[in-house]
Amino acid sequence: MIVSEADFENRLDEVMSAPALAGDGVLGPDSVMWRVHREAALFLGAGRALLLQLAHPWVAAGIAEQSKVFADPLGRFHRTFSIVYTMVFGTRAQAVAVARRLYRRHAAVDGVMPETVGPFAAGSRYRANDVEALRWVHATLVETAMMSYGLLCPPLAAAEREQYWREAMRFARLFGIPHDMLPRDWDAFKAYTAGMMASETLTVSTAARDIARRIFSGEATLIGPPRWFTALTAEMLPERLRLAFDLPHGERERRSAARARVWLPRAYAMLPDRLRTVGPYQEAMARIRGNACPPFTRLLNRAWIGQPLMPAAGAGAATPQRKASG
After folding, report:
1. Could you tell me if residue 76 is inside a domain?
2. Contact between 149 and 39 (Cβ < 8 Å)
3. Confidence band (pLDDT; 50, 70, 90) for 241?
4. CA 20 to CA 23: how far, in whole Å?
5. Which long-range contacts (CB under 8 A, 24 or more apart) does 32-36 make?
6. ER-bound oxygenase mpaB/mpaB'/Rubber oxygenase catalytic domain: which residues (predicted)?
7. Structural domain contains residue 301
8. Paired strand residues for 43
9. Side-chain half-sphere exposure of 280, counting CA atoms within 13 A
10. Residue 69 — very low, low, confident or very high, per pLDDT cuts 50/70/90?
């Protein structure tokens, strides 16, 4: 099922008609999602989330054939984090604007599978605005955020996890995902992700394996990730996907990941708040206090989202009809 323009705009209307919160965001500073997503610790899961998304053959095909990820990997990193952080920490108008830009970008990703991968036959159509694909991408962001947060921060209580999931369901509206397509609670969400990871729907294609190799070897980015990061990423994946992506996970990698699990929490605990929390969160808190965004926060934003401020709300006023390219 494709998220039509009308359906997408209905989801955005739900966002804009919700009661105003502090800072006029989709969520507010008292939310569990703000508490979790403000932490720089979530970057530890970036590799895992990417690989889980690539494991869906439609996502991998879209990235391989439509994306400029290899021409501008840093730009893709910044665009991705700019969208996610603006949805979480921006005003509702900002969140809706970037959601529309994302919808337009997805609308252009419409092609045919170059090979048979799992249940997806060669020549069959893939579209980025398919609800099932969007639901999986949303799930990878939510589940990986919680896993990464737990590596360096005190784990959430059961009630807080439930609250986080309720907030994530609101966040899903910005992708155009209907409420009735989402798991009802945290346990149902975990059952959904476990089922997906065990199913043939997630089958690592040749394209997915090549993208992963180029990113983790440094071929696509000139400088590859640290060995401990790759080892930790491999450890965070289900075994069958780790093997399918050809990620090394021998004795040396396991020792590297184990050491990282010891020294990372210690080092992270010593960081001051202005380095532990991401720039968009600090920008949002300045907005709530009625202050201008401080120079240091603007500098942090350049590192996280490639620009000094979250995108303004002026763009993305309308969503065009989708045009097929394949």
Report:
1. yes
2. yes
3. very high
4. 8
5. 32/156, 32/160, 32/163, 32/164, 32/167, 33/88, 33/164, 33/167, 33/168, 33/171, 34/88, 34/89, 34/281, 34/284, 36/145, 36/146, 36/149, 36/156, 36/164
6. 34-264
7. yes
8. none
9. 29
10. low
Both structure tokens of 22:
């502090």
Interior angle at CA 80, CA 74 and CA 81, nearest 5: 90
pLDDT on residue 218: 80
Residue 305's pLDDT is what? 96
Would the pLDDT of 233 be above 60? Answer: yes
Helices 73-89, 279-288: crossing angle, 10 deg rounding? 30
CA distances from 271 to 39, 149, 155, 277, 278 (A): 11, 15, 19, 10, 12
Q: Does residue 29 lie within any of the structural domains?
A: yes
Q: Domain count of the chain?
A: 1
pLDDT of amino acid 219: 76
Say which residue, 315 or 278, is predicted with more confidence.
Answer: 278
Query: According to the model, what pLDDT value does residue 70 have?
Result: 65
Which residue from 114, 186, 137 is spatially nearest to 3, judged by alpha carbons? 137
State the average pLDDT over residues 146-170: 97
The DSSP annotation for 115-179 comes to S-BTTB-TT-EEETTBHHHHHHHHHHHHHHHHHHHHHHSPPPPHHHHHHHHHHHHHHHGGGT--G
Structure-block tokens of residue 48 = 């895992």
| 313 in a structural domain | no
Residue 201's domain spans which residues? 5-223+277-305
Neighbours of 174 (CB within 10 A): 26
CB-CB contact of 267 with 273 (8 Å): no
Span 272-295, pLDDT tens digits: 999 999 999 999 999 999 999 999
